[in-house]
Each structure stands twice: as C-alpha cells, then as structure tokens.
C-alpha cells in the first residue's frame, strides 16, 4: 500500500480528490491532507508518503516549494502538481524541478 497526501488550499478540491475513486483498490491510502505546503511538509517528514498530489499556487508555501523540499527529503516520492493557472511560468518551474530530480538519480 502506497501512502499519499493531498494538498490544496481549497477544501472542496481536497475532498473531491479523496472521493475521486476507490484509492485502496489501486493500492493507495490517503494518509493525510493539508491546506498549504508548510503543513504538507510536516506530513511528509512524519509519514513519508510515496505520492503527493498538490496544488501549485497556495499560501504560506506553494506546491513548487513543497515539491523541491519533499524531493530533498525523499527523492523517490512521486509528485502530481495541479493548477488552474494558465501561466506557463509555473509549468516551467515544475519541469526544472523534475530535471533536477532526474539528475540526482543519475548520480546515485
């Protein structure tokens, strides 16, 4: 069973993802939710999830900052970034993080 956390500052989005399907049926357990990246990072350190679904744009710590810190903590974590924003800047930043992640794996 893979542990997963869901992070979004809109509670209806978090609840929607939780109810999206039968997570257990596909081997995933939602082990926590958070409304910003800082709360999520505490969950990452405590529960060591294998999957994080996170919004990109949130208060306190955004999804890109969370992604960077989560990867530093556990480079095997899989991140799914959600965004309602049309600005390409966010996608570019996310891709840069993934490129850095791939480089880390190649060195290991």
Written account of the structure:
The chain has about 110 residues and is α/β, with parallel strands linked by helices. Helix content is about 45%, strand content about 20%. The protein contains four helices and four strands; from the N terminus they run βαβαβαβα. A four-stranded parallel sheet has the order 2-1-3-4, with helices on both faces. The chain starts with a strand and ends with a helix.
Topology:
Layout: E1 2-7, H1 11-18, E2 28-34, H2 37-47, E3 51-55, H3 63-73, E4 78-82, H4 88-107
Parallel strand pairs: 1-2, 1-3, 3-4
What labels would you give this structure?
single chain, 108 residues, alpha/beta, 4-stranded parallel sheet, globular, disordered C terminus
Distance between the termini: 26 Å
Mean pLDDT: 84
Strand content: 15-25%
Helix content: 40-55%
What topology, given as strand order, has the largest sheet?
2-1-3-4
Short description:
46% of the residues lie in helices and 21% in strands.
